[in-house]
Amino acid sequence: MVERKRIEIPADAKVKVSVGPEEKFPFDISPMYEGERIRKEDMFVELGGPKQVKFELVLALPMDQVEDMKVTLVGPDLDEMKEGESYPYGMLYYIAGSKVETDLEPVIERRNHDFQNYIEGYMHLNQRYDIWVRISKNAVKKGLKSLIQIAKATMMLYKNELPFIEKIEAVYITDKNLVEKILKEIAMPIYDERDRRVETLHDEDVEEFYSCTLCQSFAPTNVCIVSPDRPSLCGAITWFDGRAAAKVDPEGPNKAVPKGELLDPIGGEYSGVNEFAKRESGGEYDRIKLHSFFEFPHTSCGCFEVIGFYMPEVDGIGWVHRGYPHPAPNGLTFSTMAGQTGGGKQVKGFLGVGIAYFRSKKFIQADGGWYRVVWMPKELKERVAKYIPEDIRDKIATEENAKTIEELKEFLKKVDHPVVKGVVRKVDGKKITEGWPEVVGVKEEKVEAKPEVAAPAQAPTAAVQPAVQVPTAPMPIPAMPAFQLPMPMPSQQAAPAGIKLIIKDAKITIGKIVLKKKGEK
Amino acid sequence: MTAIAVTGKGGTGKTLVSALLIHFISKKSRKVLAVDADPDSNLSDALGVEVERTLGDVREIFQVSRDEMGTMNKEQWLEGKIYETICECNGFDLLVMGRPEGEGCYCFANSLLRGILRKLTRHYEFVIIDSEAGLEHFSRKTIDSADYVIVVTDMSKKGLATASRIKQLVKELKMNFKDIMLIANRISSEEAEKRIREFSEREKMKLLEVLPYDERVVELDLKGLPVVNLDESSEVYRRMRKVAEVFLKG
User: Fold this and answer.
1) Residues 103 to 142 of A: which have CB under 8 A from any B CB?
2) Domains of chain A (ranges plus CATH)?
3) What is the ipTM of this complex?
4) CB of B163 within 8 A of CB of B40?
């Protein structure tokens, strides 16, 4: 981790210091100035922006290293700047408090943008190494003389709005060399470290998850739970985004969801999450396992980037991404399957996820994770290839290896994919599937039943009103995946013990459909 | 802030009306935002300005980059990019909304956009929105609403039919407008003018102005020149200035 410490200011630098709160500000401070855009012709100076080097950064330090309400300005101040020009800009804040920790730095840093925009005549855009600030001529006319005034106003807002900040100190830099140095040596490594957090933060490291109900207008019972190991299925929101949004607007579409008690560490079930889901879905469902495909799976609104589907013939899971036009080995296209899974319902056998979920260490952990995955389109596989464990990567088929179930079975047998002999769950070493019966051997008796759908043998009727006759070309419905009982589906009736009912390749052909009113012959 | 949406069947002259309205209002007001909300946009051409990027472009970049944003704040990123796409023109700012949504889920992007645009438009005195007849941005609520809706039509039955449909749509979308008005364009006969007046009474849409067919507008169109270059002696020019004054007075 990058060490958090006070920066060194070169001995020969031009420095201005001021300690203590400001009595009066020559500018108005209010949220109504948010969004205020300062045009080029109205600006006094531009700080940062496309032509200059810039950054903003918050550092959490121990209490004794922060001098409360102190501002140090290194480099020229406003009264030494030429109208219409742009200058380099670095804003650094040291914060301390008993509840302050490094993980909070980005959340606090974001507020710099919000608070500075409350200042009349000061416009702040973007974040990190992209910041773009403009100060209006009007503001200067009204008495703004120094960046120290800006710093003091910002620090005052920080202390008022975020009371857990007990001490705050600012260092503003307009000296090009120093801005470049700090950006390169301290700021960029810290931004990178934060981004890497996305991969190293896990469900167990945090106390709360975040919900998202943005698409409830399309799917009123859908509630997405976003956790560090499970980003949103639409791809838009990570746990970090949820946290940022919830801190700014706790009653908005992203709310904090306290985890509560851990009920199932492998499937990812928490009492707090269950309660929340029950409430927000209007009682539609009351249990969610975040990392399970089959048991109480997460719901979706229909916007997921990728859909997973279970193929009982191979006892494995396939994935298809939005935009893949061809049918998967189960004969169904993305859109057909998507139609099954949307609308905020828990549908077993299908699961909508975001592409970022493939990166997760807990990727469908309860069901064997990557070791249960048998097929995905080449385009998708290449995109997430670096997250697939090496020992399984080449065993997952793409459309180049198999387009049908038969071809898939051949391929999986050839490469000896774990589903063939039985998948062992890496997370706890437990064997969770039995393998293919024809390979592993089966003790029970198999009863094969081929259903016959009798086309209703109607004598050509003297047309009875208002019977409607549909053209008689046989209409084949796409082959339904073979069903194998028992599947962990509580809603189904368990097959009588000792008998396995296997219905294979059911093709239902309809010779004629005759619609009749009740009572007619 | 007063928001005026100008809409109508394509080809009836709504961009002409928007452009001249923007032209006149920005002469008197220093805070004007012109918004091109028509995906088949050409408001920038009518105004004689060049635009490098549209909001649609930014939205698409957002959709593909959002996975790689690490822990950067997405809303701030989007807001910054949008502010960068706003064109600072002579006397007004111009935002081109650009292409409509592609594949995938835009819920999150649009919800961010809504907030960003709402905060942005607050600071202008006038926001003039050139919108297609489908009013997509209003139905998606990326643009909240408009105080005034001006429907532009010509003499054709199709133009009038679209005008009634727009009135219906505006009500369905609950656009909370103060008034919905009509401007008739390319009216070349008394008979036609009479029919338009009857239509406006029937539909209860105030007839703001009747613009005649003007050769000089046609010529500018043919040459691809900005319509704001229209000769000051042109009747269309004069009448649109009167329309602008109605809004400037408040």
Assistant:
1) 106, 110, 113, 125-128, 130, 132
2) 15-199 (3.30.1650.10), 205-421 (3.40.1470.10), 444-521 (no CATH)
3) 0.80
4) no
